[in-house]
Write a structure and sequence with these properties.
It is built from 13 helices and eight strands. With 291 residues, the protein is α/β, with parallel strands linked by helices. It has a single domain, classed as NADP-dependent oxidoreductase domain (TIM Barrel). Helix 8 links the parallel strand 6 and strand 7. The protein starts with a strand and ends in a 12-residue tail after the last helix.
Length: 291
């Protein structure tokens, strides 16, 4: 089950990213070593994440070929004839920094429709796959329109989407009904850590009241079925038939161990059904950009 977990590395280079659990941050080397021991074999990174790619590379210099690396390309413009050059340069830099020979998945780190549908960008993505330095290409979507376009595109192999016990709106409306064979990777599984940081919700999120009311309903279900919140959060997304993997971002060794353990817990079928019914309604607060 640990091979279904992709370790997100935003916190490697941006220590204040998301809502922290308060647990002690481990060194990157220590964390990656434990991830490898636990069977986690893929990392999700980006040039946006400070020096995260370099930290991965520093680990790989001592431990070659330990992880598959998924990264992103940024700073693209619509109708830009230089898109191909810019994408290749970005990927080559990531490969050098991360000390890998190939990028497992290259995502566009811009989700806007005029970027993910741009003909220059799409042609460049096809070429970079053909070159062999990228295995698959994908999008990281925030809206139903972006998700629908990605699902129907012949170019994108992978779609990264917000899917969690808090939010399966896009999954239920689009992904679940789609017959294409895209890989679906769940992100925002803990909604940037808010799931376990209720006080931060009250202090930092303008839609705190409806969010906390929803979490109270989830807490009641967890109690009703004798489960626990972390196991439910991890196992729920992996129980969804079209989800192939999920991303968790942490810089804490303690948290990583707990997450890997929780992902292997089976949840009762009745609990899954009740949470699915709750989570598939649209929620404004389900998108962190609206906070």
């Amino acid at each position: 089950m640990s091979s279904k977990i992709i370790l997100g590395t935003a916190k490697f280079g941006i220590s204040g990213y998301g809502f922290s659990s308060g647990n002690h941050y481990s060194s990157t080397h220590e964390l990656l070593q434990k991830a490898k021991e636990l069977g986690v074999d893929t990392l999700d990174t980006s040039p946006r994440y400070g020096d995260a790619e370099k930290q991965i590379g520093d680990y790989h210099k001592c431990n070659p070929n330990s992880f598959k690396v998924c990264s992103k390309v940024d700073g693209l413009m619509p109708n830009d004839v230089h898109s191909e050059r810019n994408i290749f340069r970005s990927v080559e830099k990531t490969i050098t920094l991360s000390c890998v020979s190939q990028i497992e998945i290259l995502y566009l780190h811009q989700n806007e429709l005029d970027i993910i549908s741009d003909h220059n960008i799409l042609e460049a993505l096809v070429k970079i796959k053909e070159s062999g330095i990228v295995k698959k290409v994908g999008t990281s979507v925030y809206s139903p329109g972006e998700c629908e376009f990605s699902l129907n595109s012949d170019v994108y192999d992978v779609i990264q989407a917000p899917i969690s016990i808090l939010d399966t709106y896009m999954y239920s409306k689009l992904i679940e009904m789609n017959r294409n064979k895209n890989e679906i990777i769940a992100r925002s599984v803990f909604l940037q850590g808010t799931l376990f940081n209720r006080e931060d919700i009250r202090n930092k999120i303008k839609q705190a009241e409806p969010m906390l009311e929803y979490l109270d309903q989830v807490d009641c279900l967890v109690k009703k079925y004798g489960s626990n919140l972390l196991s439910l959060a991890c196992s729920f997304v992996l129980t969804l038939p079209h989800v192939t993997n999920f991303i968790v971002g942490t810089a804490s060794l303690q948290n990583l161990v707990r997450i890997v353990g929780a992902a292997g817990v089976n949840i009762p079928g009745e609990l899954f059904v009740e949470v699915k019914a709750l989570s598939n309604q649209y929620k404004e607060w389900g998108n962190p950009r609206n906070w």
